[in-house]
Structures are given as C-alpha cells and as structure tokens.
Specification:
By secondary structure, the protein is an alpha+beta fold. The protein folds into two domains: 67 residues, no CATH class; 117 residues, no CATH class. Helices cover 30% and strands 23% of the residues. The protein contains five helices and nine strands, in the order H-E-E-H-E-E-E-E-E-H-E-E-H-H. A hairpin with a 4-residue loop joins strand 1 and strand 2. Helix 4 runs antiparallel to helix 5.
C-alpha cells in the first residue's frame, strides 16, 4: 500500500468516527463522551449539549424558557420516608415542578410510570429534609431505592433518573424482572458519587 493510499484509509476511518460521534442536539457539533444535558420543558426530554450551548442555558445565562441546563450536583441524603407520598414501589424519583407541585416517577419495563403525590405530604417530607426545598425545578430529583432491602436516598440530576429508567427497561425479563435487574440497579447506586 502506498503512503497516499494509507493516508486515505486513515482519513476515511477518522471521517467515519466523526460522523458516528454523538452531536449537540441544538447546534450539531460533535460531542465528547462526557458532556452536559439540557432538559426540554415542552417535550419533557433530555438533549445532549455542547459546552457553548450548555453555558447559554446555565443559571444566569442569556436564554430562558424551553431549555434548562441539567446540573451535575449529587447529594447523598439520610433515609427519607416517602411512604406518605403513595408510591407503591421502592425505586422512584420525585421531581419538583416550577409551580412547586411534585411528580413521582417509578421505572417499569414500559418506561417511567407517573404519580402525583399530595402537596401536603410532599411539604411534610421537605419539612423533615430541608435539603429538598432546594431541588431545582424539572432538572433535579429525589432518587430513592428501598427495593430489595436497599437504602439509597439521593438528590441527583434528572439525567441520572432517566438512566435508571433505561436500565430497568433494558434489564427487565418476565413478570418479576428476572435476575438481571437487581444487580444492575445495585451497580448503578454503587457507582454514584457525591458532587457539589
């Protein structure tokens, strides 16, 4: 193979990798593996964002409205009693909305099931755990796992919660979940680390 042919093969391979790279959902530039997310408040979904687009939607940025930057904060909490919130399962996340209402979601093989806890019950939980009063609307959540005798209680970015939903959907087998869901959930929570 000549030097020119070898250079073309290398260049073509690099072009294919660049074409396959994940891209910013707003401006289309290629993204590194580690990148930030933006929450689309109209469609209630996440978008991948490059650094300039993420800065545009950061708190105090120039843009307001539809997109919100998903923060990176993670905070481990002492056990939070969520029983009064009426969620029938041990793995759930609670998202504060801009109007101060709260929605609960729990992962299932079909995606996230939504529940609306009573406002008074949520206020009672926040009274016992004042850290929850600072949840950023739409983009942070209280993520709880008390299933299988576990005890995990976190304030996390909403993208962590979406990852849990995807994990349950991917690993669930049969009527009861099979033997892959529990280890995958345990691994997910074991990998969480606090970030200010």
């Amino acid at each position: 193979m000549t030097a020119g042919a070898l250079a073309r093969v290398i260049r073509d391979a690099a072009d294919r990798r660049a074409a396959d790279a994940e891209r910013c959902d707003l401006c289309g530039v290629p993204l590194p593996a580690e990148h930030q997310h933006l929450y689309d408040t109209e469609r209630q979904r996440l978008h991948c964002g490059c650094r300039p687009c993420a800065l545009l939607f950061a708190e105090g940025g120039t843009a307001e409205g539809r997109y919100r930057l998903v923060p990176e904060r993670r905070l481990r909490l002492p056990p939070v009693d969520t029983g009064a919130l009426g969620v029938p399962v041990g793995l759930a996340f609670f998202v504060r909305r801009p109007d101060d209402t709260v929605t609960a979601h729990y992962p299932s093989p079909a995606g996230a099931t939504r529940w609306e806890p009573e406002a008074e019950a949520w206020r009672a939980v926040v009274d016992r755990h004042p850290e929850l009063a600072g949840l950023r609307p739409d983009v942070e959540a209280l993520l709880v796992n008390t299933a299988w005798g576990m005890s995990h209680h976190w304030i996390t970015p909403i993208d962590d919660c979406f990852r849990v939903v995807a994990l349950v959907r991917r690993e669930w087998r049969g009527l009861s979940g099979g033997n892959r869901v529990r280890p995958a959930i345990e691994e997910f929570f074991a990998s969480l680390t606090e970030r200010p």
